[in-house]
Amino acid sequence: MALTAVKGFNDILPDESGRWQYIEQTARRVFELNGFGEIRVPVMEKTELFCRSIGDATDIVEKEMYTFTDKGGNSVTLRPEGTAGVMRAFIEHKLYAQDPISKLYYLGPMFRYERPQKGRYRQFHQIGAEITGVHDPLADAQVLNMLTTFFREIGLTEPTLQINSLGCPECRPAYRATLRSFLEERMEHLCEDCKRRFDTNPLRMLDCKVPGCIEATAGAPSVLEHLCSGCDEHFSSVRRYLDLSATPYSINSRMVRGLDYYTRTTFEMVTGLLGSQSAVAAGGRYDGLISQLGGPAIPGIGFALGLERVALLLGSQDFASLPDLFIATMGGGERDFAFSLMDGLLKAGVRVEMDYEGKSLKSQMRRADKLKARYSVVIGGDEVASGRASFKRMIDGLQTDVALTVGDIQSLIGKSE
RNA sequence: GUGGCUGUGGUGAAGCGGUUAACACGUACGACUGUGACUCGUAUAUUCGAGGGUUCGAUACCCUCCAGCCACCCCA
Fold first, then answer.
1. CA–C1' distance A361–B31 (Å)?
2. Nearest nucleotide relative to A54: CA against C1'
């Protein structure tokens, strides 16, 4: 049996990588327009970083991390998400000392030991963006606008924005207690998972899909009605800014996060097209994270979007670039001439292909067709002697006689520099 | 981590105990020895995810493993 890739780790083949590049380029363009700069951080960090940021009791840290001991005896982990590493770098290099506000984006592989499914793999890829140093809800709105713009630019209308507020250390404990006492009375109607969540993460119970639980929690108190005045005002301002920028959204007061560091604004871009992997992008505010990691008390907000899921939503559109010209040759004698011509055109930025193996003219023309070259030309003894050749426009077969110079060929195929 | 379904060539698939393992797409070459697409012809799975077992005989039945999908879970 031949060797295969590790379960949940996938190859991205050329017919698919065009789509990935399109997603990445669109993200870079939109993010950089908004003033974000790329940060590249390692794929592996000390395990402690993730325990302290994501939260010891979360599923990610408890059972999904690729953690191992390296040869020096240190516990290290393949990053399960991007924010923690970016914030570690932010603190380590004291980026806040150069500029009180920073806007960073990153992209790359993340690793989680989960059961693979469509849109969910053990190595998956995220593009994320983070703003630090801004308390003002304007930052929340900009991030949400940017995310919305990204999806619009890429040509998708499907994922829709849902927002919520999780409160802050001031008001969340009180809400938690209120929710707990509400749920306690209905314990017998709840599923086993929810009974367990009651102790670990009662907010998560609002997100349960078991019909009995949905019914039992129908009248549960909403976070939004238990926000302190600061959080309430913040949330209203976020909504006002979203309205001002005509950013469509809906409020989902039952939306929960799987990472402990979130405060106040949280959001998701959700779709109904990906089965149970409905979140295409998600994020929120994390005002306590940086100080929790040993940095100064600087607020932050950000999101990450799942590349695989966006790629899935884009479908099988073809983003590959096509050759401008295919050069066919009659025999060995003309290949030196053709090779020089190809070389000159490539250096001028024209995408050229030619036959590599001295195949029959028919085979060469078939290949020109298969590669979807826009033009083809046959170089034989006559062409070498006269310095002119007949260029065929493949789409309609129209032939044009042109001198075999880089400039003339460029002007024919409409690809000048 | 739990449950269910599935696994035949590069792809989509028929066959479901004894077949030359159908058909289509794709690919290669040719018909057309200087021009692709359409058409036609020829070739293209010693083998049915892997390993065991039952059987005179297994791609088909059984077991184990592996992989994929779906739901749960979780999440991007």
1. 15
2. B75
The domain locations on chain A are 14-171+227-314, 325-413
pLDDT tens digits for A271-288?
888 777 789 999 999 999
Q: Does ipTM exceed 0.90?
A: no
Distance CA A254, CA A258 (A): 13
A270 has pLDDT over 70? yes
Q: Point out the nucleotide closest to A281 (alpha carbon to C1′).
A: B76
Q: Which nucleotides of B are covered by protein (CB under 7 A)?
A: 1-3, 27-37, 49-50, 66-76
Least confident of A15-24, A105-114, A187-196, A279-288: A187-196
Distance A236 CA to B2 C1' (A): 42
CATH of domain A325-413: 3.40.50.800
Q: Which fold has domain A14-171+227-314?
A: BirA Bifunctional Protein; domain 2 (3.30.930)
Which of A75, A42, A41 lies closest to A61 in space, CA to CA? A75
Q: Which nucleotide is nearest to A395 (CA to C1')?
A: B37
A139-184 pLDDT per residue, tens: 999 999 999 999 999 999 889 999 999 999 889 889 988 988 888 8
